[in-house]
Design goal:
Elements: H1 3-13, E1 18-22, E2 26-27, H2 67-70, H3 73-81, E3 84-87, E4 94-99, H4 102-111, E5 116-119, E6 124-129, E7 135-139, E8 142-145, E9 151-152, E10 162-163, H5 166-169, H6 200-215, H7 221-236, H8 244-256, H9 261-274
Parallel strand pairs: 6-10
Antiparallel strand pairs: 1-2, 1-3, 3-9, 4-6, 4-8, 5-6, 7-8
Length: 277
Amino acid sequence: MSQHLHTALRVAADGLTVLPLRKGKVPFGNCSACAKNACGGRPNMKTPGSCTCPNPCHGWAAATTDPGIINSPTWARAWREAAGVAYHPGGAGLTVVDLDSAEAIAWARATLPATRTVPTTRGEHWLYRGAMQSANAVRPGVDIKSSMQYARWLGPGTGAITVLPDVVRALTVKEPSTVRPAAVAVPALAGGGECPHRTRTYLDRGIAMAEQRITEAREAVHATVYRTFLAVLSKHGRCGCLTEAHTARLFTAAQAKGESARHCTDAWTNALTTLGL
């Protein structure tokens, strides 16, 4: 039994979902049957389909605590070639604050509550109890690894794990850009007819629903923003009732989810093009 396989079985027994890492500290690629997600993805990837491929496919979504899978013949080749072991923090209800520099560590010690600490090659992993959205480069030298992400297993660390604080959750919330989107000109109704939607209540309710749809998106934010813009424009884009204030509300909601002002503009333009506006 390889050292990495032995480690994986021990870590899985403690309740962490594990997967092998190849050289470069990255997961093994999908097999030919699952390449480019042709299989539809695994259920825990929150994508359509129910792939049951026995190989260590799909990155973090392959992580498991099942010793039968970890020690199976289909994973044997991966363990022989493995350069390390990883785990899915979010799957175990954990968040890893990955600190990659001395400056990042100094910031954490001055800002974050003490918790379990694991030394890494370049810095430290600070572990908190509680899952959240993962994000890279939330500040210089700091990544957040939790839901839909993996972290290297580098040992149990030292210190008691404390509850995930709000100051860490706030790291992934980007301030909306102060740049207001340019007003978008849309054609009036053919023949100059009166807009059938031009009632403040109807339009405001529609914009509020669109803002809520963007705000509540937990994944595929890019796609959600585009589809929401498309829906708003398909309803109101041909009658000229949308104002700069309306588009600003939608752009602000998208930017609060981490979208850039440029991506908002691109998504809006693409929606206009799709609808022939």
